[in-house]
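Researcher: Next sequence.
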Amino acid sequence: MKLTMRRNYKLLLLVLLTAFASCSFTTKKFNDPDKDKLLIQLITYVLNEGHFNPKDIDDTFSERVFYGYLEQIDPFKRYFYESDIKEFSKYKHELDNQIKAYDISFFNLTHERLLKRQEESKAIYKEVLSQPFDYTIVEDFSTKYENLPYASSKKEMKERWRQQLKFSTIANYDDLISQQENTYSNKKNVKKLSQIDSEESYQHDPNQDESIFKDTENQNGTLKDNDASAPKKSLEALEKEAREATLKSLDELYEFIDDRQRKDWFSVYINAIVEEFDPHTFYFAPEEKDRFDVSISGNFEGIGARLQKKMDVITINEIISGGPAWRQNKLEVGDQILKVRQSNEETSVNVVGMRLDDAVKLIKGPKGTDVILTLRKVDGTIEDLRITRDVVVIEETYAKSATVKKEGKMFGVINLPKFYVDFENYNNRNAASDIRREIERLKEQGMEGLVIDLRNNGGGSLQTVVDMAGLFIKDGPIVQVKTAGNEREVLYDKDKSIIWDGPLVILVNELSASASEILAAAMQDYKRAIIIGGKQTYGKGTVQNVLDLNRVVRNNTNGDMGALKFTTQKFYRINGGSTQLEGVKSDVVVPDRYSYIDLGEKDHDNPLPWDKIAPVVYNVFENYYDYDITIQKSKERMANNEQLKLIDENAQWVKKIRDKETYPLNYDAYRSEMRLNEEEAKRFEKISKYTTNLTFNSLPYEIKEMEADSILKQKRERWHQSLSKDVYIEEAINVLNDLKMSYPVKTKVATTAKQ
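Model: Next structure:
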């Protein structure tokens, strides 16, 4: 995630570098003609000079990179042999020297061997899946791959594939049997069929047309639930069908693998190096950098369609609401793109079989330009479609709001998926300005309390969170930031106007991170908001910056070098504490599905340590006269809430299922375990059936937009329905209803709103 802010002199050159392409990084020259070696040279230099906590590149570092890289490229140990690893091991304590010398011998060796082993594995999995699995044999399968030794022979490798594929296929097999049992529930249970019954129920005639069976299947190759008139399939037929489903999945996986180029695998190697510095330091290959920019800004220039590639064909997977293709209303989901032509070119480019990333580059382009797509339409016809590109807005990125009434009071809910910003121009749309606008709209509706939902919000721009926090306080410090070896820097809200001075609740969970934690921590320290969520948030207390590596090299002739996101600072609460590892502790702790799952910063490799610095002076918000009483009331309600008790039991059960490492490959044993799990799962069906008596509505401006946009209407209706079944939102509204102010809430729009 990219968090921007002022830096000290050590990083000043990096800032200048992103602003002036003609500047050199330092007097150091980066001119290796080999792009891979140049990339290592650039990255190691930047990390050594600019990372918050540079690492010693020594034998220990080398060993960690060695094992980390091999784990990433062969996590299931089904490519490399023991002999390969033995050959690779001579580099285990040499990678530090190779990195310093910009030597890529280790990568070249492992990459060539990987491609060879992957090609060999195609024959193995196809051979294994060509033969029926015997589910009467009593054997188990372990998913603890890190404890597996590497195969020492082709026989062992084939056996490893057999077990892994049998494990994948037994789930398909069980699904098919269960679906058939459900379809023929008024007949004998399929599981009790004898061998004679099996043979009688499915006598395959080689001259019979297979299409009579295809009509009874859905797109996934499984029986339609309502097709009781279809011929019952034997267990042998279902076993074969299950293997075919596994084969299809693997063929699609290998299609993706085959699409990967050497540069893609080299990015994996580079990231095995940089991720040893900390979990948030990451190298973006050019295409990944483009996707990162879109995710953080929420927009891009193109036609407004999401694509997917399947069996060499690029297909329209989704039309993005409001985009050029949506407005034109001629492109359809399911259309296949055969060729792409730019409006200023005479020849089309065939994209069948092309890498998806390369095809996307051809289709995207500057606003106002045209692209001509040759399509195979859903109905099979071929036609050319000209689309004028435009800015495409990914609305899911942006803040959205709703109103809800309780006991005659109007409350507002704002959902913020991330702290988005346009890094090219901060004055364009950003999270802080959008939140301000939504608050003003909610105030026009007479809002008397506000919930900001930061659940699953992984963060974003630091400047936006500072500006956003200022909407709720008069003025004062928001967050402290520190660069290694330098004095702390305090970021202030200096604008004395307040956009919302009424009751405020912030919802968080274990996936609320970084900028979300800054806002929650600041509002908690000021006692400005009550924080409701899990025991703690994610625990990311670091600041990253993204450096365009192309700006570091003068006269670059090696093509796009990508970008490096690296940790430059740590941030601290205004009370001096850090959110690193520890996160923000909720005022009211409520269980959720993540409560027992290891997914925070502390559960990653190489996180920076927790520490603290001196607090700064700030004045606690004193306009609640029952702040602590309200928290206590909420805790009591939560302790007696049957829905939350059930959610907690479910979270513990999910943890138990996730921690399971050994599974039976004998079908009777597997089925028995699955049925026990299904019975246990029935206990938790009430969770999804929970409803409140709250009704949520869109604001007037959005209601008008929905009249012309049926997709937006569907999305909002789905969101409102979700809110009405959300026990956490329900409690947030209860807390708002309890909070009492020492003065009347100002529901009119401020005339001196912060910009």
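Model: The chain is about 40% helix and 15% strand. The CA atoms of residues 99 and 237 lie 54 Å apart.
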